[in-house]
Every structure is written in C-alpha cells, then in structure tokens.
Automatic annotation (TrEMBL):
<dbReference type="InterPro" id="IPR018631">
    <property type="entry name" value="AAA-ATPase-like_dom"/>
</dbReference>
<dbReference type="InterPro" id="IPR027417">
    <property type="entry name" value="P-loop_NTPase"/>
</dbReference>
<dbReference type="Pfam" id="PF08011">
    <property type="entry name" value="PDDEXK_9"/>
</dbReference>
<protein>
    <submittedName>
        <fullName>AAA ATPase-like domain-containing protein, nuclease domain-containing</fullName>
    </submittedName>
</protein>
<dbReference type="Pfam" id="PF09820">
    <property type="entry name" value="AAA-ATPase_like"/>
</dbReference>
<feature type="domain" description="AAA-ATPase-like">
    <location>
        <begin position="11"/>
        <end position="235"/>
    </location>
</feature>
<dbReference type="InterPro" id="IPR012547">
    <property type="entry name" value="PDDEXK_9"/>
</dbReference>
Length: 556
C-alpha cells in the first residue's frame, strides 16, 4: 500500500453485505462460499459456527447473490473471486429468496418470543406482497398471505408458512426458492434458559421441516447457528440435510479469518509488526484442518492499533455456561483448572445436542463449549474422542471469570485481597492466617475425598486467578513428583516470583516434618530455575501442608 493511499474503513459491526460493499469497507473475500453452496450435494446445509464468526454476513452475501429483484446488483461482486467464476453468470439474481434471521430473538417468555417470530414471518411475506397481489390467482392464497402479514393467522398456518411462502414464490418467479435461515438456534437457547424450551422446539420443528423437508419448491436451503440441535429435536426426518460443523474440513475457511487473510489485512493497515501479538491473543481455533482467527476480535484489535483486549468475550452472555459448569461439580472444576494451566483434556464430542440433556449429562458440556468457541480441538483420537484446549489468551478470560464466580459469595472479598496482598509482600504469617480463615469458610463446599491435595491446589489456584493481571499463574498437577505445584511468574521482573508446594501430612509424621519435605523438594528439584532463567532474582518458596481442614505455611 502506498503512503498516500488511506486504508479502507473496517467493517466492524456491519453484517449486511450490500452495506459493506456500498460503503467500500475492507472485505475479506469469502465469495467462493457461494460456489461451494451451489455445488454441495445436499439440498439443505446446516453450518454451525461460534457467534461473531461472520455467519450473518455470509448469509446476507448469499441473499444478494441469489435474489432476483429486477435490479442489477452485480456491482456488489465487482473485484471478487466469484465474479470470475462460471457460476456467476448462471446463478446470479436467478431465484426468489426467503431470508429470515433469528439472531435477535432472545425473549424472556414464550408469548413474547412467539409474537416476535410471527412478526418475522410476516415481514418475509411483506417482502413479496406486491408480487403476490399481482400474480397469485387463488383468492384463498391471497387471504392466507394477508392473515400472515396482519398477525391474524392461526398456529398451524404460521408453522406451515415457510412451506407456503416457497410455493407461492416458485409459482410467481417460475423458479424454486432459496431459503436462508440465520441463527436458527438463538430462540432455542433462550427457550432453554427462560423455561419455554418445549414450546420453541415444537414450533421450530414444524416450521423448518415444512419448508425444508421434501419441498419441491426449494432450490437450496442454508441454515446457520451455533449448535446442531439433534434431529429428534428440530430436524426430524430431514433426509436432505448436510451438516458441516467446525469438525468438518468442508467449508472450513468460509467463516472466520485464515492466517493468510490475517497477514494480508495487517499489511494493508501497515501493522505487520503486530502479527505475533495478534496470534498470541486471538489465534488457536481449528475448523476442520484449518487454523482460524476470530474475526470480531481481529477487526477490533486492528482498529485499536494492536491493543489486546477480550473483545469477543466482552460481547458474550455466559450465563448458560456458568449454569452448566456449576451443575458439573468438583470434577468439572478440576478439569477447567487443568485447561487454565494451558494443558489439554480428552473428552467425547457429540455434534448433535439435545439441550434438555445438558443438565443431566456432564459429558455434553465439552461439546457445548467446543461448538460455542470456548475450546478448540488439538487432535482427533478416534470415534468421538478429542483432545481439547483453550483456544487462546482471550478465551482464558471466560474461565478465569468462571472461577471467580464460584468463589463469589463464599469468600469475603476483603479476605481474598488481604491474603493476596500478604503473599505479594512476603508476609507469610499473615498469608497463613488468612488462608486458614478462607479454608474454614469454603472447604465445606468441597469433598476432600481421596485427593485432598487436588482440592487445596484447586482452591488456591482459583484464588490466585485474581492476580493474573500481575502474574502468569502456572501449575502442573499431573504427578506432583519432580514438578512444581504452583508458580507465580511476575510480569514485572523486578517483583517477587513465588513457588508453592502442597503436601498432605501423613499419619506418622508431624506437620513440621511435612513442611521440611516440601521445601526440600523445591530445592532438590530446582523448581526456581524457570524463574531464574527469566531474570527474576527475588523468589519466595512456600510449603503449604495440611491435615484435613488444618493447614500450615512455611517459607523456605
């Protein structure tokens, strides 16, 4: 890019393809997605992706490509890849299009949700109202159209509206319809959270199957959402459905930004030097076999000239994740602790989810987190088993906040702050006193069971999350032999580095002996070498030993 040429404005918050192109915003060319849709064997395609990965923009692009409006919209595709492809001349502006987005249907009750959906269906009919008045020969059909548009139709008529709308369009245009349904599962999430799940499932099952199942008036159907809701819930009997989740290599580059696209974008804005920072913050997703970046975070990062903030997380409603993780109990909390350490876990992943099963089957949580964008696949181990990790630095925020929420209300905030301040200032006696008070206050929430070291470890690790803006909190609980339990590596090398080793007091030894063993292990295994290699000279070595709910702390 020349020095005098001003870069295009970024398309932050713009999900309408026509608006983006008319305003000459920066566009990462995804137009060959159109060709892939046309050439797909499946007549109806479901493409689940995490939120803010460009689903609405891509469906908007499909709409402006396929829709026959009587106006020349070819300029929207000038200088794009699809314009040079043979499918452009054959398919551009050749079909009637039904476009419905459910992305804003997040209502507190079924009554309000139902009314909003009926309004959306009415708007879809109004889009073609003038043509229906002119071309539909049957008075009965015209009356049906008016009842839908005026919110006077009965439940069955609304459930069959997609089917009849495609039939009317096929008759008027003499071409089968393209049906585009954006964020089909947003009202399902709200229904699950707000208590009207069965109502919304029943409606959506009938509405979608009417328009998509064995419909001779359909050319192509494309649906987007976050999850593939199981067939028995919504897609019952839909034998023409092709599902392409983030686990599928097909369509893997259609949503989000690839590494090459990121490099080109940074070059365009003279920010190539920020590639490493951007990768650390937002890289890590794996769609099929492709490394993908979160577009919302990337665009905001570039717009803010390299400020690494949790842009995507800050737009999220994580109440459902908090709810599901809380149901999971101690085991899930320990596994989230492992993920926060930067390590992976191995779990079964199911690409079809019955949402009402989420509360009764703990194993579904990991599928929900993966498809929602809070985990990534590292390796497919065969069958449904996958190795999973947290995707990037940004997503760690959600897990840190989750740990904070687990302790909120159980620990007085000032006790946590006093304890952490004592630790930072190397006031070991006061740190011990405050930790004892917190253990007495909280430990009733934990079953010490056969692994008390893990419980203490998880408790202290969870509290230390409060200091993650000052320290890199590192931990390794895989064996406890030859590996430190917790290390706090200060981001300011002039500050104190901290190593904590946990030991259970055996029946035949005193707590003094256990502390000596813990401190000796820190020395013998040279745990401080990592901090020393990083240039940190001041290192605090602590032994935390315990017997039941009693504990002692000693400095080495």
């Amino acid at each position: 890019m020349s020095e005098n040429k001003k870069p295009k404005l970024l398309p932050i918050g713009i999900s309408d393809f026509k608006m983006l192109r008319e305003q000459n915003r920066y566009y990462v060319d995804k137009t060959l997605f159109i060709k892939d849709i046309i050439e797909a064997s499946a007549q109806v395609l479901l493409l689940p992706r995490p939120r803010r990965f460009g689903k609405t923009l891509n469906l908007s692009m499909l709409r402006y490509f396929f829709e026959k409006t009587g106006q020349d919209q070819s300029f929207l595709f000038d200088n794009t890849n699809i314009r040079k492809n043979e499918v452009f001349a054959k398919h551009h502006c050749q079909y009637p299009v039904i476009y419905i987005t459910f992305k804003d249907i997040k209502e507190p009750s079924w009554e309000i949700c139902h009314n909003k959906i009926k309004q959306l269906i009415g708007d879809a009919f109004k889009h073609h109202a003038q043509m229906f008045e002119q071309k539909l020969p049957n008075k009965k059909d015209i009356n049906f159209v008016h009842r839908i548009m005026e919110n006077r139709a009965n439940q069955g008529e609304y459930e069959n509206a997609l089917k009849y709308l495609s039939e009317f369009l096929h008759f008027c245009f003499e071409k089968p319809a393209v049906i585009l349904i954006d964020e089909y599962d947003t009202p399902l999430h709200s229904g699950y959270s707000k208590g009207y799940y069965e109502d919304i499932i029943s409606f959506m099952r009938n509405f979608l199957s009417g328009g998509l199942k064995d419909n001779t008036h359909l050319y192509k159907g494309v649906l987007t959402g976050i999850l593939r809701v199981a067939k028995e819930s919504v897609f019952s009997g839909l034998n023409n459905l092709g599902v392409y989740t983030i686990l599928s290599p097909r369509f893997s580059e259609a949503f989000g930004f690839t590494e090459y696209e990121i490099q080109q974008m940074l070059k365009n804005y003279n920010l190539e030097h920020l590639l490493e920072i951007l990768s650390d913050c937002y890289n890590g997703y794996s769609f099929g076999n492709t490394v993908i970046y979160n577009p919302w975070s990337v665009l905001n990062f570039i717009d803010n000239k390299g400020e690494c903030l949790p842009y995507w997380i800050n737009t999220a409603d994580t109440s459902l994740i908090d709810k599901l993780a809380t149901f999971g109990g101690k085991e899930i909390r320990e596994e989230i602790g492992i993920l926060l350490e930067g390590k992976s876990i191995i779990k079964p992943i199911y690409d079809a989810i019955v949402m009402r099963d989420l509360e009764t089957r703990n194993d579904l949580l990991w599928s929900f987190l993966l498809f929602s964008g809070y985990l990534k696949t590292v390796k497919h181990l065969g069958d449904e088993m996958y190795e999973l990790k947290i995707p990037n630095y940004e997503v760690k925020f959600i897990y840190r906040n989750l740990i904070r929420s687990w302790f909120a209300g159980k620990i007085e905030q000032n006790r946590v702050e006093d304890m952490l301040s004592a630790l930072e200032n190397k006031n070991v006696n006061f740190f011990e006193l405050m930790l004892k008070k917190i253990v007495m206050q909280v430990m009733s929430y934990h079953d010490l069971g056969n692994a008390p070291e893990k419980v203490y470890h998880a408790l202290v690790l969870g509290i230390l999350v409060w200091m993650s803006y000052k320290y890199e909190i590192r931990s390794n609980r895989e064996s406890g032999h030859g590996r430190y339990d917790i290390m706090m590596k200060p981001k300011d090398k002039g500050k104190t580095g901290i190593i904590i080793e946990f030991k259970k007091v055996n029946k035949k030894e005193s707590h003094e002996k256990a502390m000596e063993k813990a401190l000796k292990q820190i020395e013998d295994k040279n745990y401080a070498s990592e901090l020393q290699a990083a240039g940190i000279k001041d290192i605090l070595k602590l032994a935390v030993v315990f017997q039941g709910k009693e504990l002692w702390v000693r400095e080495g």
